[in-house]
């Protein structure tokens, strides 16, 4: 078993360990046992972090884009070099198979390489009037940013909180999840080791609501960026509004998957079944409601069950494991109650449905079918390894069901019909749409949702401009 790193706060370039601070236990979800203590930032620590963020912002925004780019590229290199170690720590604290965890860290490096290039691509524009007047439009860094992220991608969620602000010229204080701190600390430490000043990129931990109230209560912070549930997102958006801070909200979803009669069913099955059980279903863009046209329904349903039953569940550190435990006790408890509710309301349980063993937080890959619309799981994100496969017929009914919920993060469709693809692309209410595609994430493409799934984007050029404010200068000759 790999060693798990010591955990610390990173404030002003200083590594602050557990000595003299209250701690929070970090658990291994494969055993349920504590593997490390995480120091909580005191109120004085947070004040120091805010003061640093102010000075750090002044330095970083004045640092030449070439230099910022070089530092971020160096950090990306360090992240690549350390991917195996950071990946192993992620598996210990979060549960996902180590191959998946290492892949997550490599993806962070790719994302950072893109963001590094964006340091030099923050273009403005100039309007030249016939009388010699010039109007210059600039994108300036918004100011110090506070980032709060969820536990499902311990490194990637933090990378997304840091990359845009640093490329735009902002300083950032990040609070990775207290349940999975090592992945995010690995990313922040790589930044510091590559030469990002200690007052420009900092990491704190504590009681989430206390930390966010403290940081967002300060006029120093000019933007908040959050990855997590819609309930917490609404709360943080209200706190941001008190001081007119800019906000980016990456919140929950309830991914519909429309499988039409003309779909390449085998390809759809291979792609979407492995997507469903990736990270034990704890992915905000996870496919959840499979709406399958009647002619292909039985084939799709049976093929999905076959693939669910072939998923090898086990400790993510072991070879050949496809799916690890869920990240915390809340995971299996939450889906157990949703499965029971769906069965009570008439849903068919086709496979799975139970916790595995009495150690750790394992749950069987599960498939429910013919789930009525009033079942909780049809309305609330399961955030676990449960697929809902319902028969439907006709474009209009499928689209109506896809758009029924207040969420709009990722949506998927499988069809060969180009006209239908074009129509669906416009009519589906989602921030990201996969058509005959299972992945909706790429470093150079914006990632984010609509409606209750949030607003603003991370990644792509939009992820950087989201960390800027516009200034227009009208200048006479
Ligand atoms: P949650 O919102 O309770 O917690 C998510 C994270 O936010 C945790 O790390 C927690 O420490 C932090 N947090 C909680 N309250 C906070 C507060 N007041 N201030 C600052 N930080 C706070 O959600 P959860 O149930 O633990 O996580 C799963 C949810 O997150 C799902 O709904 C999922 O869709 C969503 N999520 C969304 C994305 C995305 O990119 N859209 C990515 C991952 C997870």
TrEMBL record:
Highest taxon listed in the record's lineage: Bacteria
Domain Aldehyde dehydrogenase: 20-473
Keyword terms, alphabetized: Oxidoreductase
A GO biological process held by the record: gamma-aminobutyric acid catabolic process
Keyword Oxidoreductase: yes
GO function terms (MF aspect): succinate-semialdehyde dehydrogenase (NAD+) activity
InterPro entries: Ald_DH/histidinol_DH (IPR016161), Ald_DH_C (IPR016163), Ald_DH_N (IPR016162), Aldehyde_DH_dom (IPR015590), Aldehyde_DH_Superfamily (IPR050740)
Family recorded in the similarity comment: Belongs to the aldehyde dehydrogenase family.
Protein name: Aldehyde dehydrogenase family protein
Species per Swiss-Prot/TrEMBL record: Parerythrobacter jejuensis
């Amino acid at each position: 078993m790999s060693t798990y790193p010591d955990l610390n706060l990173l404030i002003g370039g200083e590594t602050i360990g557990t000595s003299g601070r209250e701690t929070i236990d970090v658990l291994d979800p494969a055993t349920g046992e504590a593997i490390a203590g995480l120091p909580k930032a005191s109120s004085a620590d947070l004040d120091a972090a805010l003061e640093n963020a102010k000075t750090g912002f002044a330095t970083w925004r004045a640092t030449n884009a070439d230099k910022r780019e070089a530092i971020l590229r160096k950090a990306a290199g360090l992240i690549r070099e350390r991917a195996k170690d950071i990946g192993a720590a992620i598996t210990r604290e979060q549960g996902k198979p180590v191959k998946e965890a290492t892949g997550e860290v490599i993806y962070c490096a790719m994302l950072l390489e893109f963001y590094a290039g964006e340091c030099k691509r923050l273009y403005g524009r100039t309007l030249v009037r016939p009388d010699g007047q010039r109007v210059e439009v600039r994108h300036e860094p918004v100011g110090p940013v506070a980032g709060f992220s969820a536990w499902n991608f311990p490194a990637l969620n933090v990378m997304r909180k840091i990359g845009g602000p640093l490329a735009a010229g902002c300083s950032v204080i990040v609070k990775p999840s207290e349940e999975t701190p090592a992945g995010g600390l690995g990313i922040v430490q790589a930044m510091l080791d590559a030469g990002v000043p200690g007052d420009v990129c900092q990491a704190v931990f504590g009681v989430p609501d206390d930390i966010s109230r403290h940081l967002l209560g300060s006029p120093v912070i000019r933007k908040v960026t959050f990855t997590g549930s819609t309930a917490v997102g609404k709360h943080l958006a209200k706190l941001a509004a008190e001081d007119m801070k800019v906000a980016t909200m990456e919140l929950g979803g309830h991914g519909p998957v429309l499988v039409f009669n003309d779909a390449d069913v085998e390809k759809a099955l291979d792609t979407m079944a492995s997507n469903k059980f990736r990270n034990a279903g704890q992915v905000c863009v996870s496919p959840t409601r499979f709406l399958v046209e009647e002619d292909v329904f039985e084939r799709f349903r049976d093929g999905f069950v076959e693939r669910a039953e072939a998923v090898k569940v086990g400790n993510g550190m072991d070879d050949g494991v496809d799916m690890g435990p869920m990240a915390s006790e809340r995971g299996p408890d939450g889906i157990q109650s949703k499965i029971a509710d769906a069965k009570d309301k008439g849903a068919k349980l086709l496979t799975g449905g139970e916790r595995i063993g009495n150690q750790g937080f394992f749950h069987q890959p599960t498939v429910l079918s013919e789930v009525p619309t009033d079942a909780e799981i049809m309305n609330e994100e399961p955030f676990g390894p449960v697929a809902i496969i319902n028969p439907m017929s006709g474009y209009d009914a499928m689209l109506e069901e896809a758009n029924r919920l207040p969420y709009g993060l990722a949506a998927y469709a499988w069809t060969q019909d180009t006209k239908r693809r074009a129509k669906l692309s416009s009519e589906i209410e989602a921030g990201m749409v996969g058509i005959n595609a299972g992945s909706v994430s790429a470093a150079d493409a914006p990632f984010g949702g609509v409606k209750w799934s949030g607003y603003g984007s991370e990644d792509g050029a939009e992820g950087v401009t989201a960390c800027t404010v516009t200034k227009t200068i009208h200048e006479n000759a």
